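Q: I have two molecules that I believe assemble together. Could you output C-alpha cells for the complex as a whole instead of separate predictions?
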Amino acid sequence: MTRIGRGRLTLIFCVALFCGIVLVESLNQAAFTTDTIIGAVIYALTAGSIYAIAASGLVVTYTTSGVFNFAQGAIGMIMAFLYWEVRVNQRWPAPIALIFVILVAAPLLGAVIERLIMRKLVNTTLVVQLVVTIGLMFFFMGLATTLWDENTISPLPEFFADKHGIDIGNVVLTWHRFITIMIAIGIALFLRVLLYRSRTGVAMRAVVDNRDLAALNGAKPGRVSALAWALGCSMAAIAGILLAPNVGLRVDALTLFIVDAFAAAIIGRLRSLPWTFAGGLIIGVVQAFAVNFLNLYGRWSTASTAIPAIILFIALLALPQARLELGRLAPKYRVPRVTSVRETAVGMGVLLAVIILVVSFAGFGVPDTRRITIAIITSIIMLSLIPLTGWAGQISLAQITFVGVGAYAMAEVAGNSSSWFNPGSPLGLVAAAVLAVPFGVLMALPALRLQGLYLALASMAFAVMAGPLFFSQKEVYGAGGRRIATLAFLGIDFNDANNFLVAVTVIFGLLALFVVWLRRSAFGRRLIALRDSPAASATVGINLIVTKLAVFALAAAMAGFAGGLLGMYRGSAGEMDFQMLVGIPFLLLLVVGGVSCVSGALFGGISSVILLIIEQDHPGVMVAGIAIFAALTRVGPGLAALGVGRNPEGAVVEIGQAFAPLLPWRRDAREHMRAERALKRAAKQQRALLSAGGGATMPPPTLPAEVPDERVPVPGDSP
Amino acid sequence: MRAVKRLRWVALATAVGVVVALTAGTASGQSSANEAPKATEVGVSANQIRIAVIADVNTPLAPGLFKGSADAVQAFGKYINKKGGIAKRQVQVDFIDSKLSPDETRNAIIQACQNDFAIVGTTALFLNNVDDMIACKDLKGQATGLPDIPELTTDVSQQRSPVSFPIIAPTRDWAHPTPEVYNERVGQVYWFKKNVTKDLHGVFLIPGDLKSTQITTISGWKAMQKIGVGNDGEYTISGRDPQDKYLPYVQTLKSKNSTFARSGSNDVSMAYFRKEAQTQGVTSVKVWDCSLACYSQRFIDTAGAAGEGQYLETFFVPFEEASKSPPVKAYLSSVGKANADGFGAQAWIAALFFQDVVNKIVKAQGVNGLTRANFLATAKAEHNFTAQGMIGPTDIGGKVPGGCFDLLQLKGGKWVRVYPKKATTFDCNKRNIQPVQFDSSSIG
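A: Yes, here they are, computed for all two components at once.
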C-alpha cells in the first residue's frame, strides 16, 4: 500500500467514524414504521430526481467542453425566475411557458455562454476555468436579485396542486412529485438514446474522447459543445422549475440546492450518466434517512445542512479518480518577470506613505478609514492564496475557513481579559497563524491524492462542512460569538482607527515582502515546478507530498493570521461570519487582479471595498426601473471574473506591462516592447504579402527571447 | 402668648417660602418653555435632532430583509416633522445600511455615534459588538454611550447593553446567570387550552440554522410544555428546507393525532408545514400556532388555502384595526399599506418610545435638556410604556418581557382578531409570562 493510499484510507476512516458517531448519537429507533419508510422513499426519490437532473446537465457539459460549470445551480435558479415571470407575472399558459423556458430560453442561454465564454476557456488553466464559472454563478445570482424582489414575489405553484395525489399506504404522493420522478426517468432514457443511438450523441462522445481527432473525422466540436451546453442549461432549467415550488423563489436557496448536486456528478465520476443518476438518488436517500430517522439535536443540530457536502467529500476521497479533461496551460502570453524584494520594498513604502498621507490630511471619518482598513485586511487574505493557487496551482475555496480558525484562535488566546494572554496581545496573531496550520494540513490531505477540479470541489466541501460542524460548536463560536480586543502593542492606541490602519498596512507590506522573497527562493521555484508539471518535479527529486503539505500549511497560516487581524478589526466573530460563499469573492477578485503577484492581492482587496461602497452609497440608482447597483457585490466580481477568460494574467499584470516601459530602470520592458512592435510589423507585412498572392510559406515571426538580466524570468509574478 | 407669636412667625415664614418656591418654579417653567433651542448634544442642533436607523436592507444575501424597519423610522421623521417636530426641532433620520455584515454594522454604529443623537429601530442581525455604542462620547467628550432603541436583539451583548432599550425585551433573565432562566410568553396557550382544546399535544419545529435562534425557540417550547402542551416530537429544520422535508413531521402529526403544531422558524417554513399537512390529509390539529413571523403577505400567498385557521399572536394592535388606533393609522398612512410589516410596526413603536422619552426630558428640563445622559436616565425610568395605545403597558426601561398579547386567526385569507374580543385591547395577565429553566449549553 502506498503512502498516499494509506493516507486516503485513514481520512476516509476518520470521516466515516465521525459520521458513525453522529449517527449513533442521533438515531431515533422509534421512527421506523411503514409510513415513515414510505415517506422516506418518496422524499428520496423526489429530491434524488432533482439532484440527478441537475447533475446530468453538469456531466453533459463537462464531458463535452471540459469545463465544470459551477454556475449550473445559478442557471437553474434564474430559469425558475424566468418561468415565474412568464407563467405567473405575464400569465402565459403553463405549456407555452415551459416550452419557452426549457426549449428556447435555456438552450439559447447555454449556446450563448458556450460561444462567448466557454469556448475561449478550452486551453486555459483550471484556475481560470473555475473562476469564470464561479463568476458566472455570482453574476446570475446578482442579476436575479437585481431583477426580482424575492421578498414580494408570489410563489410558484406546483403542477396539478389542486388535484389529490396518489395514495401509497397512508402517504400521499403529489402529482408534482410524481412528475418530478417521471421526468428524471425520462431524461435518463433520453440521454441514453441521444448519446448511444444518435449521430449527434456519437459525435458528442467522440469530442469527449479526442476533440481534434473528432474534428478530423468530420465532427464539429464547437457545434457539439454548444449543443451540450444548451442541453445542460435546459436540464438546469427543468431542475430549477421543479424545485422552485418546493424551495420557494429564493436566489440563494435555489442556487445552493442545485450546487448540492455536485456530489451526484462526482459519484458519476463526471462521465457516467447512470452513476450520476445513482449519485442523485444516494444524496436523496441519505437526506431522507437523516430527516426521517435521525433526531439531530444539541451539538449536531446544524449538521443536516452539511450532508451533501459530506457526501461530496467522501465521494471525492473514495472513488477512483477519473482522468481530468482539462486543457493544459497554453503559454500564449508573455512570461512575467519576478519582482525583486527591493522593488517590492519600494512599492510597499509608497503604499505606506500614501496611507499615512491619507490618514493625516484627507480628513476621512472613522467609517471611511475602517473601509480602507478592511481593504488591506482582505488583501492579506488574498495574499495567502498567492503561493497556494498562483504558484503551486492548488485551488482552495476554503481559505475563509482558515480565516475563521484564525479569528477563533485570536479570541481564545488574546481576545479578552479571561484569555491566556493580555487582550490584543500580538501573541494572539501568532496563535492565529499557528492554529490554522493543522487545518491547512487537514485540507492538504485530500490534495495529496486529488488535483485540479477535484481538489477545488473538496475544498468547497471542506468550507461548507466547517460552518455547521466546527464553527457552530460552543467551544468555538457557539450561539453568542466571541469578543476580540483590538491590538495592544508598544503602548500605541490601536482603538484609534488611523493607528490600526497604519499597523495593518505595515503588516501587509511585511507579508508582501515575505511572499516576494519566498517566490525567489528555492521553495518558490519548487512550487512553480509543481504547478507546471508534477511528474517532471518528482523526476528531478522534488518531494511532492512535503511541498504540497508545506504550501497548504503556509497558506493556512497566512489566512489564519489575517483572520486574527479581521477579528481585531471587527471586535468580535461569530458562526455566520465565515461561510463558504463569503470567501469565494476573495479568489475571484484575486484572479481578476492577478493571482500570482502581490499587487493583484492589493487590487482585489481595494476592488471588493469599492464595490461595497458603490452598492452601499448608491442603492437607488435606477436604469429602466431597475436598481442596477442593488447586488453589485455579486454582479461586480461575477462580471470581472468573466473577463478573466480574455485576460488570464490579471488586470495588474496587464496594466504593469503597459506602464513598465515608462519606468526609467525598466530597460528590459522597453526592449521587449520594441521587439513586440517589430513582431507585429512583421506579421502585418506577412499578411499583406499573402493577400497580394506572394510567398505562401514564409515562416511565422517569433518573439525574441526574454532580455536576460539578473532577474530570471519565471512564470508567476508581476511585471 | 409667646408660643402663639412663634407660631405666627413660623406660619409667615412657611407662607413666604411657599410663595417664593412657587414663583421660582413658575419662572423656571416659563423660562424652559420659552427658552430658545440650542445645540446641546451630538446630533442635536438648534433646529434639528438627528437620529439613525441601522438595518440590514441592501444585501444580496437577503435583499430588503429589514426594509420595513428603515422605511418606518424614516416615515416617522416626516410624520413628526409635519406635526411640528419634537423639542422645537425637526427630526432628521439617517438611514445606515448594515448590509447583513459585521463590518458594516460596526461602521454604522461608529458613524451614528459621530453624527446622531440616538439610534432608533435598530435591526441588524450581526450587531454582536456594542463596545463602540457603550464607549460613544457625548458633546463634552464623556463616554456616555449612544442611546439605542432596537426592535430586535439577537446577540447577548446588545441584550445586556446598558444603553440599549429593546422594544421586545429578551426573555433571558440575567438576574439568574445559573441555572439559566427564561421568561417566555405563553399567554396564547392558556387561551387555546380554554377555548380550543384542553388536550394540547403536538410537534414543534426548531429553526436550526443558527444556535442563537435555537436557544430562544427551544426555551419558548419548554415553557409551553411546562404549562401542559404535550411533546409529540421536536425537530430541527433549516430555513432553506423544501416542502418535501416536512413530510416526516407531518407524519408524526398524523400518527400521534396531534392537536398542536408550531414552527419556530420563518413564515415560509410555517406555510410549507401547513401545505404538506394538507397534502397528507392531517385533520387532527386544532391549533396551528405561529409567532409574529407569520404576519406577512408572503405567508398568506405561500400557504394559500392550507393556511386557513392559522393562529398568530401579536403584541401590538393589528393593522386591521387601524381605524380605531391612531398610532397604527399614522404608521400605515406614513409608510403605505403595501409597505407595512411586522418589523416596520415595531420600528414605529421604537420611534414612539424615542418621542416619548424626549418629551419627558423637555417637560422636566426644557428643550435644552436634551443630552444623551438625560435620555439614557429617562429611558431607564420608563416602566409603563404603551406607544399611545399601540402596545400593552411594557417595562422597557427595566427590560422586562411584556406578557401582553392579542390573538389573530386567518379566516378567508384575512387576519381576524379572536382574543381579546374588543378591538385595540390586550390580554396582559401576569401568568402570560412563564419562567423556565433551560441550559443553553446543552445544544452545543
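A: One point stands out. Confidence is low (pLDDT under 50) at residues 324-333, 694-698, 703-719 of chain A.
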